[in-house]
Write a structure and sequence with these properties.
Elements: E1 14-18, H1 22-34, E2 38-42, H2 45-55, E3 59-63, H3 71-81, E4 87-91, H4 96-105, E5 109-112, H5 117-130, E6 141-144, E7 147-150, E8 156-158, E9 161-163, H6 167-178, H7 186-193, H8 203-216, E10 224-227, E11 231-234
Helix pairs in contact: 1-5, 2-3, 6-8
Keywords: DNA-binding, Phosphoprotein, Transcription, Transcription regulation, Two-component regulatory system
DNA-binding region: 139-236
GO cellular component, one term: protein-DNA complex
Length: 238
């Protein structure tokens, strides 16, 4: 179990990204795929409407300024086929009337360019959680091999032995356990554990990884591994 959001049937959530700036669309898509979601892109309004019908997305990230149809018209057309799909608008405009126009037409949220990709992902996660697409959580426990973490009680155990962690150690371990066997870079860990606007250095990650190792791996077969030049990975033993 890695803690990612999934559809009620257990399949991947689907997100459609609509933006004519290729580099931006690729960046957003990469971040959304990292969440474990299936992502498709469209660079214009007509393609977006077509993709929405074929792909049946659970959420749409939609630029208002497109080369053919504008985002508001795209939303109207998509909503005729999928009236409940949540939509996050992207726009370079920040005037109050533009925000009101987007939300009045039926957009669920609004991000103004330039934006933090981390913030956008958090907004999309929030939209998906509020929609009916996401499976209801059945357990607050993350389990990787003999390591368990309860997100509600904040109890951590390895092979039944309770491990006391500080708040930051807990968040770091939770992030590792939500992504078992996946190599996480220092930058990704900084973004998730210390928030995207954290101004510190990557050596704080090394420091807290060492703290975790002393508590999780001390006297046992190691679960936290360093991938030189790439980052860190949590793997079950055996």
């Amino acid at each position: 179990m890695n803690g990612e959001l999934r559809r009620a049937d257990g399949s991947q959530l689907r997100v459609l990204v609509v933006d004519d700036e290729t580099s931006l669309a690729e960046l957003v898509s990469m971040a959304l795929r990292f969440e474990g979601w299936s992502v498709r892109c469209a660079a214009d309004g007509v393609s977006a409407v077509r993709e929405a019908k074929q792909f049946r997305p659970d959420a749409v990230v939609l630029d208002i300024m497109l080369p053919d149809l504008d985002g508001l018209e795209v939303l109207r057309r998509v909503r005729t086929d999928q009236p409940e799909v949540p939509v996050l608008f992207l726009t370079a405009k920040d005037a109050v009337e533009d925000r009101i126009a987007g939300l009045t037409v039926g957009g669920d949220d609004y991000v103004t360019k330039p934006f933090s990709v981390e913030e956008l992902v958090l907004r999309v996660r929030s939209l998906l959680r509020r929609s009916n697409a996401v499976a209801s959580p059945t357990s607050s426990q993350l389990v990787v091999g003999e390591l368990t973490l309860d997100e509600d009680s904040r109890e951590v155990r390895r092979a039944g032995d309770e491990i006391q962690l500080t708040a930051t150690e807990f968040e770091l371990l939770r992030y590792l356990m939500r992504n078992p066997r996946r190599v996480l870079s220092k930058a990704q860990i900084l973004d998730r554990v210390w928030e995207y606007d954290f101004g510190g250095q990557a050596n704080i990650v090394e420091l807290y990884i060492s703290y975790l190792r002393k508590k999780i791996d001390a006297g046992r077969e190691p679960m936290i591994h360093t991938m030189r030049g790439a980052g860190y990975v949590l793997r079950p033993t055996g």
